[in-house]
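Collaborator request, handled under Task 6.
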Amino acid sequence: MEFDWQSAFNILAGIAGVFGSFLLYSSWEAVKELRQELKEVQMLVAGQYITRAEHAEAQKATTEVLRTIRAEQRETNDKLFAKLDEIAKEVRSPGQH
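Structure tokens returned to the collaborator:
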């Protein structure tokens, strides 16, 4: 019985084709799973963004806090400058009080 090289090649090519098909199928399934996970992550992240209304409300609250701080700062500065004016008057004219 003579060894048929063509048959051996066909068998090896068939085995390689089955193995290659398995690798391609596995890769295709992995890509599909990754796409699904990416969609889930995108939906999760999109749900965590602040809305325009929430941003506007937060900005309004922050502006109000800053206005309050500025008003208190002006009041404190006015008191401080009034006290400094009193001290300056005493320094300029000691004992005339």
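The cover message to the collaborator said: "The chain has a mean pLDDT of 90. The first helix runs from residue 5 to 46. Please let us know whether this matches your experimental observations."
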